[in-house]
Design goal:
The chain is α+β, with helices and mostly antiparallel strands. Helix content is about 35%, strand content about 25%. The protein has two domains: about 200 residues, no CATH class; about 230 residues, no CATH class. The protein is built from eleven helices and 21 strands. The strands form four sheets. It has a ten-stranded antiparallel beta sheet with strand order 1-7-8-9-10-19-16-15-12-13, sandwiched between helices.
């Protein structure tokens, strides 16, 4: 009944008193468009903190969510008073709660008397109606507030909830899943380690937070502050002493999604793809916007990823043609030198073999490192490969999206559960890596060189097949979006090869 009265009063816009002593009214829930918080009236802290995208409203569009604090977690955004003198445990105070709201936020205000005469703690949580932010305001009132804070400091603790930690990933997928403490601001993004000396002073535009691949809980204090790491991917933000004693924190709890982060604060947008060098990040952001454009045109991210593979191949076509010509030059040189190399290898060993090989190169006018030309095509692919895969790994819009038999593009396709878990490969049969490798091997077997002799051509196809098998091991436990892209890239390569074969046959067909 007390919770119902508090809710009705909040809707009416008038404050409502809720007593922590009423056992049937020990909690208060606040739900907005993107946030769902449950406050303990006994402690005055959020004991449940959930963020939703696109909405927490039931029965709406497909939504994904995360619990920054849940049943297994400690209350979030806990306050501590540190310093000399009598210890004060703010979690053991008995609070009175008052609720109100305005056009921008729903506000829960807690008040409690400290165990010192004439000092009252007042803290309020203003939960944004339409964004992912919560404004926490803390104030000490009373004539003795300033003497109380002499030599003391206020700290705010954040801790990574269980839901932020993904289950252990088999294979190489564990490289993508991590929970990190970060500081982000005008000077970039810094990952904070576990040592106390890894702490960081916070500037007026700096955020400190905890993130995983898709979600982040971060705060920005108003005023001078410092951040220190705590065990278990937790952190403490310690404030400088204010006059009078009052503090304000802005907390963002939402997705690592570029537009949403920038809408909250342009500095927070740096979190997206923060693990890349600046020039790779620029390339990755360009590909991200290309994928967004393709999705807007096509209507589904899965099909857009396939189209992205074709678009990237098309954009790289001029460079690919140059790399192909260089590869043909290497193949022609290798074919010309191979008989002499075979004769030297059969007749000589050790230093004599090396001397005669170098002499053969000099006679043919070939640099000993001529084969490095063939790496041009690989070097072209590597930056694009890294940029695309980092972008797909962090693309929040792929989280929970189904495609064909794939239940979630941000996870392995998990076609069926295996009877027993297999070391490295995990407990599920993933179909996409088999399709990817099958198409890649088919492209390798169908590869035809016009200049290599049969023996060298067979060796080249064996090398390409071995590379396809290595990619199978690398990709088997990767998210389906990444495997889908590489499968599509291989399919485009195979298709272009077949078109090239058909064109050459047509050109060399006898004219009637």
């Amino acid at each position: 009944m007390a919770i119902a009265l508090a809710w009705l009063a909040a809707v009416a816009g008038a404050p409502a008193q809720v007593s922590a002593e009423e056992r049937d009214a020990d909690r208060l829930r606040v739900v907005t468009e993107h946030l769902d918080l449950v406050f303990s009236l006994e402690e005055g802290n959020p004991i449940s903190w959930r963020a939703c995208h696109p909405s927490c409203a039931p029965g709406g569009r497909r939504a994904v969510s995360v619990d920054f604090a849940g049943k297994q977690d400690a209350p979030q955004a806990r306050l501590r008073l540190r310093g000399p003198g009598t210890a004060i445990d703010l979690d053991r105070l008995r609070f009175m709660a008052e609720t109100s709201e305005d056009a921008k936020a729903r506000v829960v205000t807690f008040q409690a008397d400290l165990p010192l005469n004439g000092v009252r703690l007042v803290k309020s949580f203003a939960v944004s109606r339409e964004a992912y932010d919560v404004i926490l305001t803390v104030e000490l009132r009373g004539a003795n507030a300033a003497p109380l804070m002499a030599g003391r400091r206020l700290e705010l603790e954040l801790e990574a909830g269980h839901a932020l930690f993904p289950p252990p990933s088999p294979g190489f997928a564990g490289m993508l899943e991590h929970v990190q403490r970060v500081v982000v601001g005008p000077h970039g993004v810094r990952v904070v380690g576990d040592r106390k000396e890894d702490g960081h002073s916070l500037g007026p535009a700096d955020w400190a937070g905890i993130r995983n691949r898709f979600w982040v809980l971060a705060l920005r204090p108003d005023g001078a502050a410092s951040m220190e790491p705590r065990p278990g991917e937790a952190l403490t933000v310690a404030m400088g002493e204010p006059v009078p004693p009052s503090w304000r924190f802005r907390l963002y709890s939402g997705p690592v999604e570029l537009n949403v982060l920038r809408a909250e604060d342009p500095e927070l947008g740096r979190l997206f793809l923060s693990g890349l060098w600046w020039w790779l990040r620029v390339l990755s952001l360009a590909l991200f916007h290309l994928l967004r454009g393709l999705t807007a045109i096509i209507g589904h991210p899965g099909v857009a990823i396939i189209a992205l593979a074709g678009a990237v191949k098309l954009l790289l076509l001029p460079l690919t043609l140059v790399a192909g010509k260089l590869q043909d030059q290497v193949n022609a040189t290798q074919a010309r030198l191979q008989p002499g190399l075979d004769a030297i290898n059969a007749a000589h060993r050790g230093e004599e073999r090396t001397r005669r090989t170098l002499a053969l190169y000099r006679e043919a006018g070939v640099h000993p490192l001529y084969a490095l030309k063939s790496l041009v095509g690989f070097l072209i692919q590597v930056p694009v490969f890294i940029a695309v895969f980092d972008m797909l790994a962090e693309d929040f819009d792929l989280l929970g999206v189904p495609f064909l038999w794939i239940r979630d593009l941000s996870q392995p396709d998990h076609l069926a559960r295996l009877p027993a878990c297999v070391p490295f490969f995990g407990c599920y049969l993933n179909l996409l890596p088999f399709l990817m490798s099958g198409i890649s091997i088919a492209a390798s077997l169908r590869h035809r060189s016009t200049v290599l002799p049969p023996a060298l051509a067979r060796k080249q196809r064996r090398n390409l097949t071995a590379m396809a098998l290595a990619f199978f091991l690398l990709f088997y436990t990767f998210p389906a979006c990444m495997v889908l892209y590489w499968t599509s890239t291989n399919a485009v390569q195979l298709l272009s090869q077949e078109i090239g074969h058909a064109w050459r046959r047509l050109r060399h067909a006898p004219q009637s």
